Amino acid sequence: MKQRASVIIQGIACLALGAAIQRVYDTWSTAARQTAKVAPAVKAAQTADPVWTVAKVDRSRINYSGQPLWAWAVTELPESGEPQAVQGAPGAPANNANAGPSEEELNRKRTVSGSKLQFSLKEIRTVTNPNAGGQIVDWFPDDHGPIPDVVRYGPKAMGKNGRPCATCHLADGAGRPENASPAGLPEGYILRQLQDFKNDLRHSADPRKGNSNTMVMLAKGMSDDEMKESARYFASVAWRPHVKVVETRLVPKTKIQGELFIPQSNKLTEPIGNRIVETPTNTEENNTLRSAHGTWTAYVPVGSIKKGKDLVVRGGMKIVNGQIVQGKTTACATCHGTDYMGIAPDVPPLAGRSPSYLAREIFDIQQGIRNGSNSNIALMRMVVEKLTPEDIINITAYLASLPLSPSGKPAPATGEPITSQPNQAKPAGGPVASLQTR
């Protein structure tokens, strides 16, 4: 009976979404016309614009009261009139990445688990265009095919001011919580996102997020062929989930460094509160040495996975006294597939992805700061417009917990995360309530 009710609910969710298509069409048509007007100007701007150019973004209508601060690894709302942060601005302290360690320490060769290669900190921290003296760090070259020049060197038109895609997204597109993981995304979807960045349709709600600004600048510097090459490359790399989701009341004490939560110890001593705390499992390998095989632990509030499942699978719909009560959102499977692995060419996967990244995108879409050149974003805005900060925590916790099958292909569409029993040992400050992990 429960299974039948679930099928009925999901069917109604599909009908509800279908009824909204006509309403959305006008919105999409308007966006498409706006994009067509912007495109000629953008094409003319395909020059060596430096990556520190500030994108002009109107954030006056954003309601920051519901911003999931944890997703940006910040603790306070942005100040009124906060300027757009940039990466690589001339004279910025962040430019001197090698300050601190001795020359001997900087040049000492390092290794990571599973790789026979060696790199020094100086090599790892050199993020400029290789044609200007830098390089990307590729610990596992056998994991992927030949890397296109734009991924290895950056947009050709930007010269020494460019930045390789692999600098932030890593050589195989594994990415990290502070940015996207393009590996395994549909080629058409990646290409459209690059075009949307280029056409000023996609920005971050939080002006302090400098790497979003960098994406806009790099996309504007890319040729059409470079966009196609990078999209084809990242789509060809097999997606390897690397987030372990842990339900808990306590988390390790962390410091915020480079838009990441860095654990200061392994002890669980700090209340999690209303947030998700995503940390590197091995800080040295994952963060310092930037290993693409690094894994991340996402600590989530107790009960969030179950609550998230209700919203993701059923849209919050319920049957009360034989009557269907409409939920606040739409079942994700309606568009993203019953296994939440996306649908080519233009719908991205959600299962097993970073909750920090997913939460940022939900909020950006909700606030109208992330737009798109087709109807998908307009549809998504309708889906997420009523979500609260707690809903965003629950939805992203559940989606991040979803597994792939041992074969590496999508798991059966059970909607169930793999669950293991919690460690019964009590760490300092209290027990872990439960453990959900892939």
Unreliable parts: 15-48, 93-98, 129-134, 405-438
Helix-strand makeup class: alpha+beta
Mean pLDDT: 82
At the fold tier of CATH, the topology name of the domain at 82-236 is Cytochrome Bc1 Complex, Chain D, domain 2
Can you summarize the main beta sheet?
3 strands, mixed
In words, what does this structure look like?
There is one protein chain. With 438 residues, the chain is of the alpha+beta class. It has a domain at 82-236: Cytochrome Bc1 Complex, Chain D, domain 2 (Orthogonal Bundle). It has 14 helices and nine strands. The strands form four sheets. The protein has a three-stranded mixed sheet with strand order 3-7-6. It is globular, with a radius of gyration of 22 Å. The model is unreliable at 15-48, 93-98, 129-134 and 405-438 (pLDDT under 50).
What features would you highlight for this structure?
single chain; 438 residues; alpha+beta; Cytochrome Bc1 Complex, Chain D, domain 2; three-stranded mixed beta sheet; two-stranded antiparallel sheet; 14 helices; disordered C terminus
In short:
The protein is an alpha+beta fold. It has helices spanning 2-44, 103-107, 121-125, 149-153, 165-169, 187-198, 210-221, 224-236, 283-288, 304-314, 333-336, 355-366, 375-384, 389-401; strands at 109-110, 119-120, 243-247, 250-257, 260-271, 277-280, 296-300, 318-320, 323-325. It has a domain at 82-236: Cytochrome Bc1 Complex, Chain D, domain 2, CATH 1.10.760.
Helices and strands in order:
Blueprint: H1 2-44, H2 103-107, E1 109-110, E2 119-120, H3 121-125, H4 149-153, H5 165-169, H6 187-198, H7 210-221, H8 224-236, E3 243-247, E4 250-257, E5 260-271, E6 277-280, H9 283-288, E7 296-300, H10 304-314, E8 318-320, E9 323-325, H11 333-336, H12 355-366, H13 375-384, H14 389-401
Parallel strand pairs: 3-7
Antiparallel strand pairs: 1-2, 4-5, 6-7, 8-9
